[in-house]
Specification:
The chain is 39% helix and 9% strand. The chain is of the alpha/beta class and 354 residues long. It has a single domain (5-297), classed as NADP-dependent oxidoreductase domain (TIM Barrel, Alpha-Beta Barrel). The strands form two sheets. Strands 1-2-3-4-7-8-9 form a seven-stranded parallel β-sheet. Helix 1 (13-26) packs across helix 10 (265-272), helix 2 (40-52) crosses helix 3 (77-88) and helix 8 crosses helix 9 (243-252). The record marks 66 as: Lowers pKa of active site Tyr.
Length: 354
Amino acid sequence: MPIMGLGTFLQPPSKIRDYVQMALEIGYRHIDTSFVYMNEEAIGKALERAIECRIVSREQLFISSKLPPVGNRAIDVKDYVEASLERLKLDYLDLYLIHIPFGFEPNRSGFGRVATDERGNHVLDMDTDIVAIWQALEEQVERGCIRSIGVSNFNERQVQCLLDISEIPISTNQLELHAYLQQKKLVDFCFKKCVPITAYASLGSPLSKTYFENCFGYSHKSFPEVLCDPVIRRIAKRHRKCQAQILLRFWSQQCVPVIPGAVSCAQLIENFNHVDFNLSAKEMRMISKLDIGEGARIFNGLYYTGAECHPEYPFPVSWDDLNKPDLQKKSVGSSNKCEQNKKSLQKKICGDRE
């Protein structure tokens, strides 16, 4: 996997063709997408055009996509892999990930649609089986549809669960990693288990701010302003680099590939050229000390009502998280099984507080 990739989350189909072609001309070879980004078809057209124009060959590309939460059932894996291949106009994917370890119930009225309750909340599939899903992915590798498989947003227990049964190695665990959320324990665990890491949202995901404000009512202040951190500014000034390049280099210098997005050609070039310098050991320690922990997590899944009750919800949940007003709404996600899980979780947290 290339150390530098192109993130395509929240890149609209109307602009993605030019965005991808521009990136390929700059030198990007790893394009990261997902079924849920709803831009695979447009990316496929961009890749087809780039190959026809001999900007790049298929063999030079590294294309990754992901199984959506609504497809988190072994029986559905083949259909979603084939759907991504058709949309991307490819014969195989270089990498395919389980996007997140918990799943949603499908709405049988249309492929890829999620069932919702009377309040419009996603309905959780409380029986998600990550082992069965992984084994179904291994079958797709054997079919030649996928070259390598991995996971995203998996915790230590979930990674170990797959390591215990896997016939094919876990190629990566794609994690939200930025200066304020470094997940050191999980990263160290994966490295010790020979599971490579890929970092997403390494710039604090500035493109997500408007999306989360409009779709989920998040406050603008909910997002970590890691690009504006004074420590990052000082280091950037010292190296005559932009803040984004410092944040990306912090991870790539640890041999962790990064997949940032961009909104302009200038940003694409800046991101791509972040590897022509090295941070000093002191600077690496300075950035390491910026770690806030779980309080800085952006993509915690709690915008899906009841997600924290799912048996495969992968993130630590705090007492404050459980008592947020938006998590008290009743939904189909708060079924009897969900309520039992929530009570167990609350009891555990109460016990930790006593």
